[in-house]
């Protein structure tokens, strides 16, 4: 029987602990139309809410809102008012203007919430984290 050093055993045990952690929610940055269609589909959004962040690189308020959305989407404990977890998809309106037109994005940033394959709510303009959490409670 081979005896392993204690350090090796602790490292192996620690690695197993990571596999039992909660699954991280998904974020799709700079998505194209195909990814947008797949992520916002009815089958994908039947148990979760997908936030679509329409932004542009030159938009100052977008740069203020995006880190808040990313933080909330990365936190597995963040839920909507209906108890659903959230995913985040970002759409660059300069590259995908057709999607922005389809969802009547007239100002940036605009965040559209999708549930059961349908756009159910939106916010326009930058909000503080508390405002975004209030928005999530309404979805």
Task: Describe the protein in words.
With 139 residues, the chain is of the alpha/beta class. It is 36% helix and 21% strand. It has five helices and five strands. It has helices spanning 6-18, 33-39, 60-74, 97-102, 129-137, and strands at residues 27-28, 49-55, 86-92, 110-115, 118-124. The chain has a five-stranded mixed β-sheet with strand order 1-3-2-4-5, with helices on both faces. Helix 3 links the parallel strand 2 and strand 3 (86-92). The longest helix is centred in the middle third of the chain and has 15 residues, at 60-74. The model is unreliable at 4-24 (pLDDT under 50).
Structural class, from secondary structure content? Answer: alpha/beta
Helical content stands at: 25-40%
Please give the largest β-sheet. 5 strands, mixed
C-alpha Rg (nearest Å): 19 Å
Q: What spatial form do the alpha-carbon principal axes imply?
A: globular
Strand % is: 15-25%
Strand order of the largest sheet: 1-3-2-4-5
Number of helices: 5
By DSSP, the count of extended strands is: 5
Topology as H/E string? HEHEHEHEEH
Which short descriptors sum up this protein?
single chain; 139 residues; alpha/beta; 5 strands; 36% helix; globular
């Amino acid at each position: 029987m081979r005896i392993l050093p204690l350090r090796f055993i602790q490292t192996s045990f620690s690695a197993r602990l990571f596999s039992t952690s909660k699954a991280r929610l998904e974020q799709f940055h700079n998505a194209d139309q195909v990814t947008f269609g797949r992520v916002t589909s009815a089958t994908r959004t039947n148990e979760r809410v997908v936030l679509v962040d329409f932004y542009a690189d030159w938009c100052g308020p977008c740069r203020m809102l995006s880190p808040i959305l990313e933080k909330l989407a990365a936190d597995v404990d963040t839920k909507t008012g209906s108890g659903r977890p959230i995913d985040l998809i970002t759409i660059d309106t300069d590259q995908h203007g057709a999607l922005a037109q389809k969802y009547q994005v007239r100002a940036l940033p605009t965040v559209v919430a999708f549930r059961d394959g349908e756009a159910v709510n939106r916010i326009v303009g930058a909000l503080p984290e508390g405002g975004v959490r209030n928005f999530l409670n309404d979805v």
